[in-house]
């Protein structure tokens, strides 16, 4: 009987595994893939991590952990070089390598084992995989996300119609191809930059439902929304207020970096100077794709203006769908959550990310990366992954292994002032404070 089994090994459960290691918890993490990877199809040379690399698996909870990004840099002989760079960011490629480095060092990870069913019983859960059965008192679901494919494109997904997540796994466009990129977020912008840089002679049409290429809101005050106290206040609000806040604050998580916007504009300006812009590039805003049909080995795409409802038709050779992701819901998860309390079709989660059930369950079930409207936008990006996992670990141990300490926020919620859950620091910091 294990204390906890994690289903899925992505960045969130990888962080949980690293933070569990110094505890007495008996844990196991299962993943159907043969190895760890993090969106390899999007690891473009120009792609950058949109959060601080200190928001890694462990640092914001335990900066002394050997699984930190800084220790990764030191072990690879790049710590001084990283400090000498002009900015403190890193590439998605390097951060993916960091994750793989952490995964290779953890002994509680099992790859190549697909979970097919989770069955509650008297003392916990039977987790049935493709090869065996495990028993655990609690489960943490971290099955990740899957590409969001527009309905009109789903029947045509293949070599020349594909999601951005598969971009680097498809053959590059040939000279003279007309490529349609759908989606005005960071991934779409990175792909367009890559096409402009690498695909000489390629015609590009970029279509987005947004009114413009909206830059990510990354100022210091906006980032206060990615602190534990803010998340706690958010969770206590009524659903409609939470929905409204998520919509208003979307660009703190889902915009294009200002640097990339400026680079793209500069590249397009230079094409305009050279007289080649109008024949090689178009940017269509406030439009949606309504239909795709095959025609003479090409694709006929119907677009519709959001405001005007006016139609527009394109003939293209390739379609790249930078249309985002959605939570993955395998059949075993739907069955397990059958008795969960629901809030407008969404499972209700407690402050510690445990599912609230209508009936007594044999142990807690925690959900990773599926609580955008329960805990805010921070729950679906990397900002508070270590903090969230510290709450899960404390709940499993029924005591504060990772101890809370106060950290002042500049941005206060007046209606909940003094009631917020405070950030977490490692036991080592508490020990130093006690000695002092």
The low-confidence runs, each spanning 5 or more residues with pLDDT under 50, are 414-436
Helix content range of the residues, please? Answer: 25-40%
What is the residue-averaged pLDDT? Answer: 89
Largest sheet: 5 strands, parallel
Could you say which overall geometry the principal axes of the C-alpha atoms support? globular
User: How much strand content do the residues show?
Assistant: 15-25%
Q: SS-based structural class?
A: alpha/beta
- Number of contiguous helices: 13
Rg, nearest Å: 23 Å
Number of strand elements: 22
User: How far apart are the termini?
Assistant: 41 Å
Structure description:
The structure is a single chain. With 436 residues, the chain is of the alpha/beta class. The chain contains 13 helices and 22 strands. It has helices at 11-20, 69-75, 79-84, 92-105, 186-198, 228-235, 239-248, 258-274, 277-280, 331-336, 372-375, 385-397, 427-435; strands at residues 4-7, 27-31, 109-111, 115-121, 124-129, 133-136, 139-141, 145-147, 161-163, 178-182, 203-207, 281-284, 287-295, 298-305, 311-316, 318-321, 325-327, 342-343, 346-347, 365-367, 403-404, 424-425. The strands form seven sheets. A five-stranded parallel beta sheet has the order 3-2-1-7-20, covered by helices on one side. Strand 10 (178-182), helix 5 (186-198) and strand 11 (203-207) form a beta-alpha-beta unit. Helix 1 (11-20) crosses helix 12. The chain is globular, with a radius of gyration of 23 Å. It starts with a strand and ends with a helix.
């Amino acid at each position: 009987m294990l204390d906890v089994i994690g289903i899925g090994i992505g960045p969130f459960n990888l962080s949980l595994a690293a933070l569990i290691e110094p505890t007495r918890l008996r844990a196991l993490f299962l993943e159907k893939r043969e190895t760890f990877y993090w969106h390899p199809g999007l690891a473009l040379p120009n792609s950058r991590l949109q959060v601080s690399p200190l928001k890694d698996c462990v640092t914001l909870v335990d900066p002394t952990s050997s699984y930190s990004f800084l220790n990764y840099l030191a072990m690879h002989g790049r710590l001084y070089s990283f400090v000498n760079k002009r900015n403190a960011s890193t590439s998605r490629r390097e951060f993916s390598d960091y994750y793989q480095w952490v995964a290779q060092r953890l002994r509680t990870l099992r790859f190549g084992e697909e979970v097919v069913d989770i069955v509650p019983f008297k003392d916990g859960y039977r987790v049935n995989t493709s090869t065996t059965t495990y028993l655990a008192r609690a489960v943490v679901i971290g099955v990740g996300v899957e590409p969001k494919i527009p309905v009109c494109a789903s029947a045509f997904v293949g070599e020349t119609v594909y999601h951005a997540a598969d971009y680097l796994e498809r053959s590059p466009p040939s000279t003279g191809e007309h490529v349609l990129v759908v989606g005005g977020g960071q991934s779409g912008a990175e792909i367009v930059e890559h096409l402009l840089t690498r695909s000489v002679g390629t015609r590009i049409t970029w279509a987005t439902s947004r009114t413009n290429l909206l830059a990510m809101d990354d100022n210091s005050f906006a980032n206060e929304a990615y602190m534990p106290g803010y998340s706690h206040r958010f969770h206590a609000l009524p659903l409609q207020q939470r929905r409204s806040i998520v919509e208003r604050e979307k660009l703190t998580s889902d915009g294009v970096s200002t640097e990339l916007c400026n680079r793209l504009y500069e590249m397009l300006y230079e094409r305009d100077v050279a007289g080649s812009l109008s024949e090689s590039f178009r940017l269509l805003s406030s439009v949606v794709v309504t239909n795709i049909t095959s025609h003479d080995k090409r694709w006929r795409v119907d677009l519709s203006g959001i405001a005007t409802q006016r139609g527009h038709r394109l003939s293209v050779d390739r379609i790249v769908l930078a249309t985002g992701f959605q939570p993955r819901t395998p059949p075993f998860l739907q069955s397990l959550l059958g008795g969960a309390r629901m809030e407008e079709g969404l499972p209700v989660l407690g402050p510690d990310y445990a599912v609230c059930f209508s009936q007594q369950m044999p142990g807690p079930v925690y959900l990773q990366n599926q609580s955008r409207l329960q805990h805010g936008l921070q729950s679906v990006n990397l900002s508070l992954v270590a903090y969230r996992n510290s709450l899960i670990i404390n709940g499993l141990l029924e005591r504060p292994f990772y101890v809370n300490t106060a950290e002042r926020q500049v941005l206060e919620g007046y209606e909940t002032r003094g009631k917020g859950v405070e950030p977490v620091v490692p036991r080592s910091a508490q020990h130093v404070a006690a000695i002092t």
